[in-house]
Amino acid sequence: MSSSKAKLEYIWLDGYKPTQSLRSKTKIVSNFSGKLEDCPIWSFDGSSTEQAEGGSSDCLLRPVAIYPDSARKNGWLVMTEVLNADGTPHESNGRATIVDNDEDFWFGFEQEYTIWDISINRPIGFPAEGYPGPQGPYYCSVGSTNAIGRDLVEEHLDECLDAGLNVEGINGEVMMGQWEFQIFAKGAAEAGDQIWVARYLLERCGEKYGYKINWHCKPMKGDWNGSGMHANFSNTLLREAGDKAIYDKICQAFEPTVQDHIAVYGADNDQRLTGFHETQRIDQFSYGISDRSASIRIPIATVESGWKGWLEDRRPASNADPYKVAAVIIDTVKKACATL
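C-alpha cells predicted for Glutamine synthetase (340 residues):
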C-alpha cells in the first residue's frame, strides 16, 4: 500500500442521444490499494450530461473495473456505470442490460475508427480539397504515404497494454486515416469495459496530438469504407458444438430479430450497411462461411475446427455501445439455444 496520493480517473457514459459520449473526472485518494473494492461510489451533476434535471441532478458512479494508468503518476483508470440517486441503473446504463451472470459468453470486438484532422475537417492524410488515391493501398499498409497516424496508434497501443487491456492486435484499415484495434474478453461486461477504456485512452492520445477521433460509421461519403465494430462471440455451445446444424439454427435465429439488433448497432448505420464495402444491406439478413458481405460471417477457423468456434456479427457500427451490442446478441443466442 502506497502512502502517496493516487489519481483515480472515473470514466462514464453520458446520456446524449443517439450516441453517448465519454465523460471523466479525477478523484484524489490517499493510501489507495489499487483494488476495485476500494474505489468509492462517487456522484456527478447529471443535469450537465443529459442524465438528470437541474432540480434533482445527482447521479451516482459505481466502479466496475480498474486499470493502471501509465500516462499519469500514481494514476488509475476506473470504469464506472451510472446509477440513479436511489441506486437503480440509469436508463442510459447499457451495461445493466447484459444478462450473462455466468460469463459463458466470450466477445471479441474489432473497433474501427478514423483519425480526424480538425484543421481541414477530414481524415488525416486527406488533402484539404479533393481526395487521395482510391482505396487499396491503405489496408494493413506500411510507408509514409499510406500508413498515416502510426505514432498516435502505437502510443495508444502501449497505453492499452500498460493498462492490462487484452488488445489482440492493431492494423491500418481500408480508408486512409482509418485504423482498428481488437479486444477480447471472457465475459460480455468485461469486454465492454475494456472497449470503453480503450476508447477513452484513444481520445486522450488524440488530445495530445491535436486530432479528433471520429467514431462515425461513415465519416466520408462516397466510395470509402465505413467504420464498424464487428462483434465476434461464442458461448459453450458454439465452442463445443461440432455440428453445422447447430450453427445454422443459431444464425437463422438472428433473421427475425434484425430490427432489435439494428436499434442498438449504432446511429446512422444505414449509411454504412449499404450492401457495398464489405457489408450486407441494413434491411436484409444473410450468413455464410468466410463471407464478409454477410450480416453474420462464420469464420473459416470455426469450420476447420469441426464446427467448434465462434460467429462474427458484422453489422455493429464503430459508434455502437458494446454493452448494448453484447446484450442483444446474448438474448438472441440464448433464445435459439433454448429451442435446440
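The chain has two domains: 5-93, 106-338.
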